[in-house]
Amino acid sequence: MFARLSEVVLPVIIGIMHKVEKLTIKEQRAQKAFLESLEVTPRKTKKPVVVAMVGLVGSGKSTVAKELAKHLCATVIEGDVVRVFLRKEDEKYEGMRKIAENAMEEVVRQGGNIILDSDHIDVKKRASLREKTKKLGAQIHFVRTHINWDIMVGYALAADYRDTPEDFFGGASSPYQGDAKTKGAIVKTREMWRRTPHHYKWENTGGGKWALKKLPFPVLAMIDTTTDKWKEDVRKIAKKLLS
Hints:
Layout: H1 2-18, H2 25-37, E1 49-54, H3 61-72, E2 75-78, H4 79-88, H5 96-109, E3 114-117, H6 123-136, E4 139-146, H7 149-158, H8 180-199, E5 200-203, E6 209-212, E7 221-224, H9 230-242
Parallel strand pairs: 1-3, 1-4, 2-3, 4-7
Antiparallel strand pairs: 5-6
Helix pairs in contact: 1-6, 2-4, 2-5, 3-9, 4-5, 5-6, 7-8
Protein backbone atom coordinates (compact mmCIF):
# COMPACT_ATOMS: atom_id res chain seq x y z
CA MET A 1 0.00 0.00 0.00
CA PHE A 2 2.77 2.43 0.99
CA ALA A 3 4.78 1.57 -2.14
CA ARG A 4 1.81 2.33 -4.40
CA LEU A 5 1.13 5.59 -2.55
CA SER A 6 4.75 6.64 -3.09
CA GLU A 7 4.24 6.34 -6.86
CA VAL A 8 1.66 9.14 -6.61
CA VAL A 9 3.05 11.37 -3.86
CA LEU A 10 6.79 11.34 -4.64
CA PRO A 11 6.54 13.06 -8.07
CA VAL A 12 5.10 16.15 -6.34
CA ILE A 13 7.95 16.25 -3.83
CA ILE A 14 10.57 15.58 -6.50
CA GLY A 15 9.12 18.41 -8.60
CA ILE A 16 9.92 20.87 -5.82
CA MET A 17 13.46 19.50 -5.54
CA HIS A 18 14.01 19.90 -9.30
CA LYS A 19 13.83 23.68 -8.91
CA VAL A 20 17.08 23.76 -6.93
CA GLU A 21 18.86 20.90 -8.68
CA LYS A 22 21.94 22.02 -10.63
CA LEU A 23 24.71 20.35 -12.60
CA THR A 24 28.39 20.86 -11.84
CA ILE A 25 30.70 22.38 -14.47
CA LYS A 26 32.01 18.92 -15.38
CA GLU A 27 28.48 17.53 -15.57
CA GLN A 28 27.49 20.40 -17.87
CA ARG A 29 30.39 19.58 -20.20
CA ALA A 30 29.42 15.90 -20.19
CA GLN A 31 25.81 16.82 -20.94
CA LYS A 32 26.82 19.07 -23.85
CA ALA A 33 28.93 16.31 -25.39
CA PHE A 34 26.17 13.74 -24.91
CA LEU A 35 23.50 15.96 -26.46
CA GLU A 36 25.73 16.57 -29.47
CA SER A 37 26.01 12.80 -29.96
CA LEU A 38 22.25 12.24 -30.23
CA GLU A 39 20.30 11.95 -33.47
CA VAL A 40 16.60 12.78 -33.26
CA THR A 41 14.10 11.10 -35.58
CA PRO A 42 10.60 12.62 -35.97
CA ARG A 43 8.09 10.62 -33.97
CA LYS A 44 5.30 8.54 -35.49
CA THR A 45 2.93 9.02 -32.54
CA LYS A 46 0.49 11.90 -31.97
CA LYS A 47 1.81 12.63 -28.49
CA PRO A 48 5.38 12.23 -27.26
CA VAL A 49 6.05 8.76 -25.89
CA VAL A 50 8.65 7.95 -23.25
CA VAL A 51 9.48 4.30 -22.63
CA ALA A 52 11.57 3.64 -19.51
CA MET A 53 13.30 0.31 -19.11
CA VAL A 54 13.29 -1.75 -15.90
CA GLY A 55 15.64 -4.68 -15.43
CA LEU A 56 18.78 -6.03 -13.87
CA VAL A 57 22.21 -5.46 -15.42
CA GLY A 58 22.55 -8.03 -18.21
CA SER A 59 18.81 -8.70 -18.56
CA GLY A 60 18.64 -7.33 -22.11
CA LYS A 61 17.49 -3.75 -21.53
CA SER A 62 19.80 -2.26 -24.17
CA THR A 63 19.00 -4.93 -26.75
CA VAL A 64 15.25 -4.47 -26.31
CA ALA A 65 15.54 -0.67 -26.23
CA LYS A 66 17.41 -0.55 -29.54
CA GLU A 67 14.98 -2.95 -31.23
CA LEU A 68 11.95 -1.03 -29.97
CA ALA A 69 13.51 2.24 -31.12
CA LYS A 70 13.64 0.91 -34.69
CA HIS A 71 9.88 0.31 -34.70
CA LEU A 72 9.00 3.61 -32.99
CA CYS A 73 11.65 5.74 -34.70
CA ALA A 74 12.64 6.75 -31.18
CA THR A 75 15.89 8.07 -29.74
CA VAL A 76 17.59 5.82 -27.18
CA ILE A 77 19.18 7.56 -24.21
CA GLU A 78 21.66 5.06 -22.78
CA GLY A 79 22.52 5.52 -19.12
CA ASP A 80 25.90 3.83 -19.56
CA VAL A 81 26.81 6.20 -22.40
CA VAL A 82 26.00 9.18 -20.18
CA ARG A 83 28.22 7.64 -17.51
CA VAL A 84 31.05 7.28 -20.02
CA PHE A 85 30.85 11.01 -20.82
CA LEU A 86 30.94 11.75 -17.08
CA ARG A 87 33.92 9.42 -16.69
CA LYS A 88 35.80 11.30 -19.41
CA GLU A 89 35.31 14.46 -17.33
CA ASP A 90 36.62 12.63 -14.26
CA GLU A 91 33.23 13.20 -12.63
CA LYS A 92 31.11 10.91 -10.47
CA TYR A 93 27.89 9.40 -11.82
CA GLU A 94 25.44 11.31 -9.59
CA GLY A 95 24.42 13.59 -12.47
CA MET A 96 23.48 10.74 -14.82
CA ARG A 97 19.73 10.87 -14.09
CA LYS A 98 19.56 14.66 -14.46
CA ILE A 99 21.49 14.62 -17.74
CA ALA A 100 19.31 11.79 -19.13
CA GLU A 101 16.14 13.71 -18.22
CA ASN A 102 17.48 16.92 -19.76
CA ALA A 103 18.29 15.00 -22.93
CA MET A 104 14.77 13.56 -22.91
CA GLU A 105 13.30 17.06 -22.73
CA GLU A 106 15.48 18.23 -25.62
CA VAL A 107 14.52 15.28 -27.83
CA VAL A 108 10.82 15.80 -27.11
CA ARG A 109 11.18 19.50 -27.97
CA GLN A 110 12.70 18.44 -31.29
CA GLY A 111 9.70 16.22 -32.03
CA GLY A 112 11.07 12.82 -31.08
CA ASN A 113 10.10 9.88 -28.90
CA ILE A 114 12.37 8.55 -26.18
CA ILE A 115 13.50 5.19 -24.84
CA LEU A 116 15.42 5.52 -21.57
CA ASP A 117 17.90 2.65 -21.40
CA SER A 118 18.69 2.51 -17.70
CA ASP A 119 17.13 0.71 -14.76
CA HIS A 120 14.06 2.47 -13.31
CA ILE A 121 13.54 0.12 -10.39
CA ASP A 122 14.30 2.98 -7.96
CA VAL A 123 11.13 4.74 -6.78
CA LYS A 124 12.76 8.19 -6.66
CA LYS A 125 14.03 7.82 -10.21
CA ARG A 126 10.55 6.88 -11.42
CA ALA A 127 9.02 9.77 -9.48
CA SER A 128 11.43 12.23 -11.08
CA LEU A 129 10.63 10.85 -14.53
CA ARG A 130 6.87 11.00 -13.96
CA GLU A 131 7.12 14.64 -12.93
CA LYS A 132 9.19 15.56 -15.98
CA THR A 133 7.03 13.70 -18.50
CA LYS A 134 3.88 15.26 -17.06
CA LYS A 135 5.28 18.72 -17.76
CA LEU A 136 6.23 17.65 -21.28
CA GLY A 137 2.73 16.29 -21.98
CA ALA A 138 4.29 12.93 -22.81
CA GLN A 139 2.91 9.44 -22.27
CA ILE A 140 5.15 7.33 -20.05
CA HIS A 141 5.37 3.54 -20.11
CA PHE A 142 7.65 1.08 -18.33
CA VAL A 143 8.96 -2.09 -19.97
CA ARG A 144 10.57 -4.78 -17.82
CA THR A 145 13.20 -7.20 -19.12
CA HIS A 146 14.33 -10.44 -17.52
CA ILE A 147 16.30 -13.53 -18.51
CA ASN A 148 17.28 -16.95 -17.21
CA TRP A 149 19.87 -16.32 -14.50
CA ASP A 150 22.50 -18.78 -15.76
CA ILE A 151 22.25 -17.46 -19.30
CA MET A 152 22.56 -13.87 -18.06
CA VAL A 153 25.76 -14.63 -16.14
CA GLY A 154 27.09 -16.65 -19.09
CA TYR A 155 26.64 -13.66 -21.41
CA ALA A 156 28.36 -11.39 -18.89
CA LEU A 157 31.39 -13.68 -18.69
CA ALA A 158 31.65 -14.26 -22.45
CA ALA A 159 31.23 -10.66 -23.68
CA ASP A 160 34.13 -8.97 -25.49
CA TYR A 161 35.14 -6.16 -23.11
CA ARG A 162 37.82 -3.65 -24.06
CA ASP A 163 39.96 -1.38 -21.90
CA THR A 164 38.78 1.84 -23.56
CA PRO A 165 36.83 4.83 -22.15
CA GLU A 166 33.88 3.98 -24.43
CA ASP A 167 33.51 0.45 -22.99
CA PHE A 168 31.59 1.06 -19.77
CA PHE A 169 32.54 -2.17 -18.00
CA GLY A 170 35.89 -2.87 -19.67
CA GLY A 171 37.03 0.69 -19.10
CA ALA A 172 35.90 0.84 -15.48
CA SER A 173 38.35 1.13 -12.61
CA SER A 174 38.93 -2.04 -10.60
CA PRO A 175 41.54 -3.50 -8.22
CA TYR A 176 41.83 -6.36 -10.71
CA GLN A 177 44.96 -5.81 -12.79
CA GLY A 178 44.54 -8.52 -15.44
CA ASP A 179 43.23 -8.32 -19.00
CA ALA A 180 40.34 -6.02 -19.93
CA LYS A 181 38.03 -8.89 -20.92
CA THR A 182 38.22 -10.51 -17.50
CA LYS A 183 38.06 -7.16 -15.72
CA GLY A 184 34.92 -6.20 -17.63
CA ALA A 185 33.26 -9.50 -16.72
CA ILE A 186 34.19 -9.00 -13.06
CA VAL A 187 32.79 -5.46 -12.94
CA LYS A 188 29.56 -6.41 -14.70
CA THR A 189 29.03 -9.45 -12.49
CA ARG A 190 29.68 -7.31 -9.42
CA GLU A 191 26.96 -4.91 -10.55
CA MET A 192 24.59 -7.84 -11.09
CA TRP A 193 25.14 -9.04 -7.54
CA ARG A 194 24.81 -5.54 -6.12
CA ARG A 195 21.45 -4.87 -7.76
CA THR A 196 19.94 -8.36 -7.62
CA PRO A 197 17.96 -7.69 -4.39
CA HIS A 198 16.08 -4.90 -6.17
CA HIS A 199 14.73 -7.30 -8.79
CA TYR A 200 14.82 -10.84 -7.40
CA LYS A 201 14.11 -12.82 -4.27
CA TRP A 202 15.58 -16.21 -3.44
CA GLU A 203 13.11 -19.09 -3.25
CA ASN A 204 14.52 -22.11 -1.43
CA THR A 205 12.50 -24.71 -3.31
CA GLY A 206 13.61 -27.39 -5.76
CA GLY A 207 17.25 -26.71 -5.05
CA GLY A 208 16.67 -22.96 -4.91
CA LYS A 209 16.11 -20.31 -7.56
CA TRP A 210 15.97 -16.56 -8.10
CA ALA A 211 12.37 -15.41 -8.63
CA LEU A 212 11.31 -12.02 -9.96
CA LYS A 213 9.88 -9.66 -7.38
CA LYS A 214 6.43 -8.22 -7.97
CA LEU A 215 6.65 -4.54 -8.93
CA PRO A 216 4.61 -1.88 -7.07
CA PHE A 217 3.84 -0.10 -10.36
CA PRO A 218 2.30 -1.19 -13.69
CA VAL A 219 4.42 -2.06 -16.71
CA LEU A 220 3.44 -2.04 -20.36
CA ALA A 221 5.12 -5.38 -20.94
CA MET A 222 7.31 -8.06 -19.39
CA ILE A 223 9.90 -9.27 -21.91
CA ASP A 224 11.82 -12.50 -21.39
CA THR A 225 15.02 -12.25 -23.43
CA THR A 226 16.04 -15.86 -22.81
CA THR A 227 14.91 -16.86 -26.32
CA ASP A 228 14.35 -15.01 -29.63
CA LYS A 229 10.64 -14.70 -28.85
CA TRP A 230 11.41 -11.30 -27.33
CA LYS A 231 11.58 -9.78 -30.82
CA GLU A 232 7.93 -10.61 -31.44
CA ASP A 233 7.05 -9.16 -28.04
CA VAL A 234 8.81 -5.92 -29.00
CA ARG A 235 6.82 -5.73 -32.24
CA LYS A 236 3.60 -6.10 -30.25
CA ILE A 237 4.61 -3.28 -27.91
CA ALA A 238 5.42 -1.01 -30.85
CA LYS A 239 2.10 -1.79 -32.52
CA LYS A 240 0.27 -0.94 -29.31
CA LEU A 241 2.10 2.37 -28.90
CA LEU A 242 1.64 3.37 -32.53
CA SER A 243 -2.08 2.59 -32.63
